[in-house]
Amino acid sequence: MSGGAQTNLPNPGRDSGLSGEGPAIVVRNLSKRYGDLVVLENLSFELERGKVYVIMGPSGCGKSTLLRHLIGAETPDNGEVLIDGVDMHSNDRKVRDEARRKFGVLFQSAALLNGLTVAENVALPIQRHTDLPKSTIDLMVKLKLELVGMGSAADKYPYEISGGMKKRAGLARAIALDPAIVFYDEPSAGLDPVMIGVIDKLIMDLTNKLGITAVVITHEMPSIFRIADEVMMLFGGRFAFRGTPQQLRNSTDPLVRQFINGDPEGPINAPRQLAELSDKLLGGSRRGQTAQGAGA
Amino acid sequence: MSVAADLIAGFGKWVNGHVSTLGAAMRFGGAAIGFGVKGIFNKRIYPRHELIVQMDYTGARSTVIMVLLGFLVGGSLVLQTTPSLSKYGPAELVAGVVGVSVLRTLGPLLAAIIFAGRVGAGYTAELGTMAVSEEIQALDTMGIHPVGYLVAPRFMAAVLMLPACTVLFDLSALVGGYLVGVYNFGIPHDAWMDVTHRFVTMSNFTFGICKSVVFAMIITLVCCFKGFTVRGSGMEVGRATMQAIVICLILLIFSDFVLSMVYNFLVKMGIVD
């Protein structure tokens, strides 16, 4: 299943932050339920270094929950997540922080601190985790911002810039400490097609030029076909599909076909949800009509 | 049978929910106090300039409202007490009533209530908005402890500045009371000062300041915790802010009562005068 010709891309000429051996991310028997709702069911998978992985699936399928478990924001009911062999859910915060140093996250809303300028946002993780002098930090911040094309907006506050610029600034902050893995939560949400293309190119460049492993949560189909080395489709708490974009395109699985084509009818229960919604909205008037009919 | 079982299960769930929230709040408070103190020696926990910014926001910018309201409270107290008091004895006794009540209870409590409305509500709204927009989550994933970075400087600023605000409020109330007593009711200056000296002790003042430190801790921890735990939309921020202020008011008045009992006990034991 895990298709794709690329395997174990080297991290060219840089300290990746990872030990350099084995998979970048290992997930074993990850399970999560909220009450009776099973969101993640015994998920196990490994992600290799230097590739772009896309996790897709219908709304509410658990993509964001999986991401929150991967970055240690939520504790699983069962199972473990290892980032370069370090347990992301260790009881010891120092161990968790060690794992956190190995990755950056681009949040859906970019999550820039509004009280700091763009440059201060990017400098924050560097200041907190290194003893570098201010002049070096300033230089690093400048480099990261230039890398994402945000050099001219360094002194602006997040509320002064557009959604696409926020995403790019968030990406600069995510790569501030040269992480070997970057998680992207819906990077194209709320952006116009051109800006989506810009963000996609950045994701690919960071992986191809710097060897960063990218884990992208999205359901933007053109983006998926453009950037993914491997696609994983989450449905019902499990991966319903895992393979290359080509395999995804050629898949005859009705679930995959419905999702790619955006069909309203199929194994994904959108029609049932629609019927339930319709019943909720129109049920009263329907019943009223029936009663009137019976009365007549 | 099943109704009874459902009721018991529901009650158990309710108790469990509240106990776990209380546990989380205690851990949050412990972390805030720990980081607040450690941050004085370790600039990586929170930047020093952030403490200055928060002290400016909580203290310096509260000056005008504390002075104004303190003055009015002192004046009102004398206006309302003097006519009744003068029926049973010398009117200048009002100086003692104002001095003791302002320094021991009214000053610290009212300054804390004003502080909760002005600063505490701001804390909940600000941190709640940050929680909703994933900023707190982002700090955590960067390996920056959000409680250390966001709450500790606010906590330290409040613990330092609320007592300062209380001193201002107390002084303004005493001045307001003096002006109304002397210029409105014609109480002689010497009589006013003499009664004040006889009634008011240093321990009245220090007790009030100690209370204000406790009040600052209550306000910061409640308001920051409510802000941190906001989930969902911006509407929840408003709800959390309202809940934070209500909880603060209840805890402030309750703790004022308990601390007053402790003070009276200490007086009775002869530990304070």
Q: What topology emerges from the helices and strands here?
A:
The complex is a heterodimer of chains A (296) and B (273).
Chain A: E1 25-34, E2 37-47, E3 52-56, H1 63-70, E4 78-83, E5 86-87, H2 93-100, E6 103-106, H3 118-129, H4 134-147, H5 163-174, E7 181-185, H6 193-210, E8 213-217, H7 221-227, E9 230-235, E10 238-243, H8 245-250, H9 254-261, H10 270-295
Parallel strand pairs in A: 3-8, 3-9, 6-7, 7-8
Antiparallel strand pairs in A: 1-2, 1-4, 4-5, 9-10
Helix pairs in contact in A: 3-4, 3-5, 4-5
Chain B: H1 2-41, H2 48-58, H3 63-88, H4 94-132, H5 135-141, H6 146-184, H7 189-199, H8 202-228, H9 234-268
Helix pairs in contact in B: 1-6, 2-6, 3-4, 3-6, 4-6, 4-7, 4-8, 4-9, 6-8, 8-9
Concise overview:
The complex is a heterodimer of chains A (296) and B (273). Chain A is of the alpha/beta class. Chain A has helices at residues 63-70, 93-100, 118-129, 134-147, 163-174, 193-210, 221-227, 245-250, 254-261, 270-295; strands at 25-34, 37-47, 52-56, 78-83, 86-87, 103-106, 181-185, 213-217, 230-235, 238-243.
Please tell me about this protein's structure.
The complex is a heterodimer of chains A (296) and B (273). Chain A is of the alpha/beta class and 296 residues long. Chain A has one domain: 3-Layer(aba) Sandwich (Rossmann fold), CATH 3.40.50.300. Chain A contains 10 helices and 10 strands. In chain A, the strands form 2 sheets. Chain A has a 6-stranded mixed β-sheet with strand order 6-7-8-3-9-10, sandwiched between helices. Chain A has a 4-stranded antiparallel β-sheet with strand order 2-1-4-5, with helices on one face. In chain A, helix 3 crosses helix 4, helix 3 (118-129) runs parallel beside helix 5 (163-174) and helix 4 crosses helix 5 (163-174). The termini of chain A are far apart. In chain A, 40% of the residues are buried. With 273 residues, chain B is mainly α. Chain B has one domain (2-268). Chain B is built from 9 helices and no strands. Chain B has helices at residues 2-41, 48-58, 63-88, 94-132, 135-141, 146-184, 189-199, 202-228, 234-268. In chain B, helix 4 packs across helix 7 (189-199). The longest helix of chain B is centred in the first third of the chain and has 40 residues, at 2-41. The radius of gyration of chain B is 22 Å and the shape is globular. The mean pLDDT of chain B is 92. Chain A binds chain B through residues 71-73, 93, 97, 100-101, 103-105, 107-109, 111-114, 124-125, 128-129, 173, and chain B through 44, 130, 133-135, 137-145.
